[in-house]
Design goal:
Elements lengths: L46 H7 L39 E4 L6 E4 L13 H12 L3 E2 H4 L5 H5 L8 E6 L3 E2 L9 E2 L10 H12 L3 E6 L10 H14 L4 E5 L7 H8 L5 E3 L9 H4 L6 H14 L4 E8 L5 H8 L4 H4 L2 E4 L2 E4 L15 E6 L16 H13 L3
Parallel strand pairs: 4-7, 5-6, 7-8, 8-9, 9-10, 10-13
Antiparallel strand pairs: 1-2, 3-4, 11-12
Helix pairs in contact: 5-6, 6-7, 7-9
């Protein structure tokens, strides 16, 4: 037993070398090339890393010209993001993933790329939000336009979308990245005062208030929403306030409450066409229920401006967009329109569409997949198509 090596030795003593085993020597230094690959050694699974590599790269969010390695040739007259893209410009594709599982993805089009936010207004607004424990849908929904809204050239040009009633929603729409829970934290009773104080301090010219859905509350949070609007108007009477509300589970009396609080624009989003609503939105939200909210808000006060927004790129068809927009003009409803060589009769007057309920403003936006867990983008809509729908909506009276 005495000939065995001790189990413990001093840290500063010289190493004990067993003469029966030759010590391996290596002339490799830190600057030498890596050893040759041994095909017999199995590579450790890297599923998470492969999925991460397949996602969008950092350069997708920076307004620099795309790398030639991943892009198809650009049109000759389109050299930077500041130049208007042409309708003939092809979408860029790239092969991503490990060598044995390559797949093709579509790169973010140049007209959708945005710069990294660095303006002083952006930094100031972000700092104030954290100090007052306020939330914005700009951050929670990972909006790529945050630099344009928060970074206005001056205070009156900047806008912000404050998200009331916390950062956790009771619904789970497949396009939205806001956190969800059946039992969110209770409301902050000081939030209306803090929100009004922050907006007065910023001196914004226009503010949008929105909120998570709170189906756990008896009123859906309508009283909290209305109180916030009243506080803002008391502290900053000249500030224009847009309220982007939920549907309050169909309780139209809560719509009246918010509409009568002094706001300037009542907004409620239908989000998508009726045919895709069940797939895109939470099952508790329906297209017809949203239309009833907009119709009730329009009649709550004389001169009320109502607004809704629609995401494109989810797989909707041209006919479905027409059906959503069209109104009750007799000459229009009695006519027919051709789509892709097929004749489709327009919907009858019994159906409640956006134009019939006198919605004042409709906006179109490109759907952007916030994370890999959410619905994929079906189509990147080009600026020329957006312009076409803008002109069509104006012709219909929006």
């Amino acid at each position: 037993m005495s000939s065995k090596l001790p189990r413990l030795r001093c840290l500063y003593s010289s190493p004990i070398i067993n003469p029966h085993f030759a010590q391996p020597t290596s002339s490799r230094s830190f600057a030498t090339d890596a050893p040759e690959h041994n095909p017999s050694i199995r590579r450790r699974p890297t599923t998470f890393r492969d999925r991460l590599n397949a996602g969008p790269s950092f350069t997708e969010f920076v307004s620099s010209p795309p790398s030639a390695e991943f892009s198809t040739p650009f049109s000759a007259n389109h050299s930077s993001l500041n130049d208007p893209p042409t309708s003939e410009e092809p979408l860029r594709t790239a092969l991503v993933g490990p060598a044995n599982r390559k797949r093709q993805i579509t790169r973010l089009p140049t007209w959708l790329q945005t710069p990294i936010p660095t303006s002083p207004n952006y930094k100031r607004i972000k700092s104030d939000l954290r100090g007052l424990n306020l939330h914005t849908v700009c951050e929670e929904a990972r909006c790529p336009n945050i630099n344009d809204c928060w970074g206005g050239s001056d205070k009156s040009a900047a806008t912000a979308t404050i998200m009331l009633m916390g950062d956790t929603c009771t619904r789970g729409c497949r396009f939205c990245s806001v956190k969800t829970s059946r039992a969110p934290p209770p409301l902050d009773p000081h939030e209306p005062e803090h929100t009004a104080e922050a907006l007065k301090r910023w001196g914004l010219g226009y503010v949008v208030l929105t909120s998570v859905d709170r189906d756990d509350l008896a009123d859906g949070g309508a009283h909290h929403f209305a109180e916030t609007i009243r506080k803002i108007k008391d502290k900053a009477p000249g500030m224009l306030v847009e309220a982007l509300t939920g549907d309050y589970a169909g309780d139209l009396e809560m719509v009246d409450l918010v509409a009568g609080s002094g706001l300037d624009v009542y907004a409620h989003n239908v989000e998508t066409v009726e045919a895709l609503t069940a797939m895109v939105r939470d099952r508790r939200a329906t297209f017809r229920q949203s239309l009833r909210v907009l119709e009730r808000a329009k009649g709550a006060r004389e001169g009320m401006v109502t607004k809704t927004s629609v995401m494109l790129g989810l797989g909707e068809t041209e006919e479905q967009i027409w059906d959503m927009l069209r109104g009750t003009f007799p000459t229009l409803l009695s006519s027919t329109r051709s789509f892709d060589g097929k004749i489709h009769r327009l919907m009858n007057c019994a159906q409640i569409e956006l134009r019939r309920i006198n919605t004042d403003i409709v906006t179109f936006g490109q759907y952007m997949q916030p994370t890999k867990r959410h619905m994929p983008v079906q189509t990147y809509v080009t600026p020329s198509v957006f312009e076409t729908w803008r002109q069509r909506a104006l012709d219909m009276g929006f």
